[in-house]
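Continuing the series of single-chain predictions for the mutant panel. This is the parent chain; the variants come on the following pages.
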Amino acid sequence: MLCPVSVSHRKTFDPSRLTVRELLAAYVSILDELLSRRLIRTRNSPLGDLVESLALRAYGGELAPNSQKSYDVLAADGRRVQVKARLIDPADKRSQNFSAFRSWDFDIALFVVFDTGTYDLLWAREVTQDEAREIGRWVGHTASSRLLVRQVASIGTDVTARLAEAYDRIDEPETLLPRVTS
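Parent structure:
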């Protein structure tokens, strides 16, 4: 027989009172516990949506529709920005990849790295399409190019401060940020 969860028990946690950073820290703790209980195998996360929101705040403009395969943000200056993010453990020295590139119809790629245990921003780099192509490694069976975190860390332009400023304002209302609805 199933035991229903009481309504009063469900109301003991009120996430509406937490900042975005507190919510993300709680999320990491929940994932850790679920992993330790062997209930999940991966750390699939809200990272992609978070970094697109940060890019929108940092670059202005509008989010591309979800169906847009080549870029995520159309910046206020007209550049098409492909956003890539990765959670890493700074102590882990293994090679780590950003998600693969399957098309190159963008002006710049924004690579953002966060600490896997805290969601703290570690660094952000703005890389031209040509720079990304140059270091990308073609993977035939997925018809895509992969870029290693350590390779990206030393190319392009450091935009960590720009993204950190946007992250510091993450709890501010988005009412001034335009969104694509289609």
